Amino acid sequence: MNVLVTGGAGYIGAHVVRVLAQHGHTPIILDDLRSASYERIGDFQHEHVALEDTSKVMAVFQKYQPEAIVHLAGSISVRESVQTPEKYWANNLGAGMSLLLACARFPVRIFLFSSSAAVYGNAVETPIRENAILEPTSPYGSSKLAFEHTLHRSAQALGMCSIALRYFNAAGAHTAWGVGEQHDSEEHLIPKVIRALLTAQPVQVYGNDYPTPDGTCIRDYIHVVDLAEAHVLTLENEYLGNQHNFNVGTGEGYSVLEIISAIATRLSVTPQITFLSRRPGDPPRLIADPSALLSHVGWKPVHSSLQEIVNSAVEWELVRC
Ligand SMILES: NC(=O)c1ccc[n+]([C@@H]2O[C@H](COP(=O)([O-])OP(=O)(O)OC[C@H]3O[C@@H](n4cnc5c(N)ncnc54)[C@H](O)[C@@H]3O)[C@@H](O)[C@H]2O)c1
Q1: pLDDT above 80 for 28
Q2: 111: Cβ below 6 Å to ligand 1?
Q3: Does the pLDDT value for residue 310 go beyond 80?
Q4: Ligand 1 pocket mutation pick from 76, 84, 93 by most atoms within 8 angstroms of CB
Q5: Which backbone phi and psi does 265 adopt, to 5 degrees?
Q6: Ligand 1 centroid from CA 9, angstroms
Q7: What pTM value is reported for the model?
C-alpha cells in the first residue's frame, strides 16, 4: 500500500520507512528536513514539503492517493517546549491540521499518529495502561494529547481509522541500514551517555533523590526497529476498530544508573558521574503496559533487550560521523 510518512527523514521515521519497504509497501516521505538530513532519505520517494503548507500537502495527497498516513513529523523536545510552547502548539497541533484537511478531500483508510508517554504526565501507577489519567506536565505532552483528541474526532467524522501510538523511549539503531539516532541537540539519555563516555567526559545525571531503588529515574526503552514494526503491523491489521490509543513499550524499566552501567560495560570504561538537581517535569518512573497492542495487533518487541539496544546504539555512534 502507499503510505505517506510525515517526518520520514527523522530518526524514527527513517526506520519506519525501511520496515514498510521490507514488508512490500510503498512509503512516501513528506519532510522538509528542518531537523534531518538528506542522507536518511536514501532511494525512497520524498516530497520536500512543510506540513504548514496546506496546499502543497493537498497536492501530495492528490499525487500519491495514500491508503495510510503515518504522522511522525513534529517538534520533540520537552525542555524546549517549556521555553517556547507556541512552537509546539504550532507544529504538533497546528501543522497536523493540513493532514486532516487533506484526508477530508482524499479519503485515507487509516491514520497512525506518533504520540508519546508524555501524555500521561506523572503517572501514579506503573505499568501504565492506556486508560490512565492523562495529565501532561509539558507543552510537548499537551500538544501531543491535543492532536490525539483532534485526530480521533476528525477520523470519526471522516470514517477513517485513527490510532495514536504512545511511544515510550525510542532507542537503538539499525546500522546496516545506515540509520540511527541523530538529533540536532541530543537530549536522549543513551546517545548522550555514549558520547560522553567515548570522549572521557563526565556523565550528567539529573536527580538521584527520586523514589526509585537507586534514586534515578526509570524509563521503558523500546528498540526503534521494534517500534517501526509496531507501525507496520498496525497498518496491516484490517480488523482493528476505528479508534485506539496504544502504548508502545516493553513493560520493563531501567534506571539512569543502570543504563550508564550497561553502556560503560559495553565500552569497558569506568564512568565519571556528576549528579545535578532534578529537571522540572521528569516523572520518577514511566513504564508501559504494552498488552493492548499485543492483544489487538499481535506485536511483541524482539530487539528490545537492554543489551541489544546498547550494542546497536554504540555501534551506530562509532560509525555515524
Ligand atoms: N524519539 C523518541 O523517543 C520519541 C518518544 C515519543 C514520541 N516521539 C515522537 O515521534 C516522532 C518522531 O520522533 P524522532 O525522534 O524521529 O524526531 P526527529 O526530529 O528525528 O524527526 C522529526 C522529523 O519531522 C520533520 N518535521 C518536523 N516538523 C515538520 C513539519 N512541520 N513539516 C515537515 N517536516 C517536519 C523533521 O525534519 C524530522 O525529519 C515525533 O513526533 C516525536 O514527538 C518520539
Answers
A1: yes
A2: no
A3: yes
A4: 76
A5: -65, -45
A6: 9
A7: 0.97
Instruction: Give me the DSSP letters along 7-67.
Output: TTTSHHHHHHHHHHHHTT-EEEEE---TTS-GGGGTTSEEE---TT-HHHHHHHHHHH--S
Burial class (CB in 10 A: 0-12, 13-18, 19+), 259: buried
151 Cβ closer than 6 Å to some ligand 1 atom = no
* Spatial CB neighbours of 176, under 8 Å, sequence gap ≥ 6: none
pLDDT digits (tens, 9 = 90+) for 133-154: 999 999 999 999 999 999 999 9
For residue 13 and ligand 1, the question of a CB distance below 6 A is answered with yes
- How much distance in Å is there from the Cα of 6 to the middle of ligand 1? 9
Q: Is 140 a catalytic residue?
A: yes
Model confidence at 187: pLDDT above 90: no
**What pLDDT does 55 receive?**
98
Phi and psi at 228, nearest 5°, equal -65, -40
Å from CA of 38 to ligand 1 middle: 15
For helices 256-267 and 189-198, give the axis angle rounded to 10 degrees: 40
Which of 140, 167, 210, 221 is labelled catalytic? 140
Mean pLDDT value of segment 36-59:
96
Provide the 8-state DSSP code for 175: G
Q: Which domains does the chain have, with CATH numbers?
A: 2-171+222-249 (3.40.50.720), 175-218+252-287+308-319 (3.90.25.10)
